[in-house]
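User:
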Amino acid sequence: MNTIHENAISGGLPLSPNALVVLKKRYLRKDDQGEVCETVPDMFERVAATIAQVDRLYDPEADIEETAIKFCNLMASLAFMPNSPTLMNAGRAIKHTALIHKSGGGTGFAFSRIRPEGDPVMSTKGVASGPISFMEIFNTATETIKQGGTRRGANMALLRVDHPDVEKFITCKNKLDSLNNFNISVGLTDAFMEAVKNQDDFPLVNPRTGEVVKKVNAAALFDMIVQSSWANPIPHVGEIEATNPCGEQPLLPYESCNLGSLNLAAVVNDGRFVGTIDYEQLKEIVWTAVHFLDNVIDANKFPLPEIAERTMQNRKIGLGVMGFADMLVKLGIPYNSEEAVQTAEKVMSFIQAESKAASAELAARRGNFPNFPGSVYDRKGQEKMRNATTTTIAPTG
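Assistant: Predicted structure:
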């Protein structure tokens, strides 16, 4: 039985009983229990706010709040009504994305259940456009939103390794002007890793039908993932052929390894029962650490002139972490839990973003690293970056 009264649902609007039945069944948002949790005015506000955002694509200074009010009043007066897909979908996932980005957060999306590109759609007699097309929609929406008023929104897209479009997904960011608001991750399975280990073929499965679409060489697919994962930020300078002794830092010939670890256990505030992460303190530490490591490059006495030259040209630094397990203990989070994984993603995303921001601020005062022209940052249109890399997988982690 619905917990929202009919009058509350209609908001006093002149809606017929039949209209209310259809609205509750098809248009109004429902909670996890399938109960209606949105009124008709709420729906109009949701749609109006989402559609008004588009003004920002053409005018960054557009008063989208005023436009949203106009749109909402127009629909509430029943003088105009958009089509069903707009009423059903506008402002659901993308609105939530916008709110999270507005408050300085990031969002992660699983696209694995979306049918592959070219899959027949019986209801429309057409074909599906695939998960990457959906990513482009979210990417465009994110463009209009500034995180905390200072930086663009950030998204993470995840696709299972057995999705038929996985190869396109792995390479979807090879063009540096596409999906710039997305990081991408491939969801690996035990079955896939076994196939890699055994040099077997691996089936790609349509998530709609459960049928195998084709089989690919697992090891070759894994190589494609690794290649994209360790993409070189300065490809015009040379190819990465080796790592440092611990294996966590891929380097060009004669580059040096200039790393540091952030102690995550030191940024937890004590609570009565469990602590909380002090992100302001973590930001201050990250910014200071970037400054510190950049200074190390200039203070160093290098054993070979070739090492000095290459290090100065790229000014790579690597911030890693330690004390993650201790941090989880202070937070009251089990190490082997989904919450621990989510905490790791949030913390490291924060460090990645803040280290890049600190490096850009340093570049404004000290200049970009000399090989900046032609780098991935330059190709993306970014104007400032002091260090070709800022983070690393620390062996202390």
